[in-house]
What does this fold into?
Amino acid sequence: MNIDKYPSKLLENAVNEFSKLPGIGRKSALRLVLHLLRQDVGPVTYFGNSIIQLRNNIKHCKICHNISDTEICRICNNASRNRSVICVVENIRDVMSVENTQQFNGLYHVLGGIISPMDGIGPSELEIESLVNRVEKEDITEVILALSTTMEGDTTNFYIYRKLKDKEVKISTLARGVSVGDELEYTDEITLGRSLANRIPYESSMGK
It folds into this structure.
């Protein structure tokens, strides 16, 4: 079939929408849509409703800004977590990556991105001030900067360090088991776990 000529406008519309997803070209979109057409109505309806409910009902934790079904996420609500340590990450995928290591039992702070002037993202677009407020108002003893070891990640680390360096809090960063230039979500669990366990004071990393 020539994917530029569809036998149905409904099919074409569905392919157009699927092809807007990251990493999905029109051929892959057509394959996904045809797969859904082969399914019973029930599973396809559930699939569609789950996406609608996700978009309409998802929340961001008012404490750490992680994605949540409730006003406060399950991690922040968990009384068994170490509430004196905050791990600062870029996004929800990084929270999942750190959790999968089973090496961290503290809380998180999700920035919602990293400083990237090329993309028009400055400190004011990120949840940095809310992190400073948490350090000032909560009994926080350590902030772990667990951002990707890219230029943008290092820039964001340094900016946060400058905002927190005069506070009574230890500032640490991942040990360089995570290679320079790596994004956190693509680091294997063992390496990431070791980097967390062997974290170093942020000042020690500044000359490297």
Observations:
- The beta strands are 59-60, 67-68, 85-89, 107-110, 142-145, 170-173, 200-201.
- The radius of gyration is 21 Å.
- The chain has nine helices and seven strands.
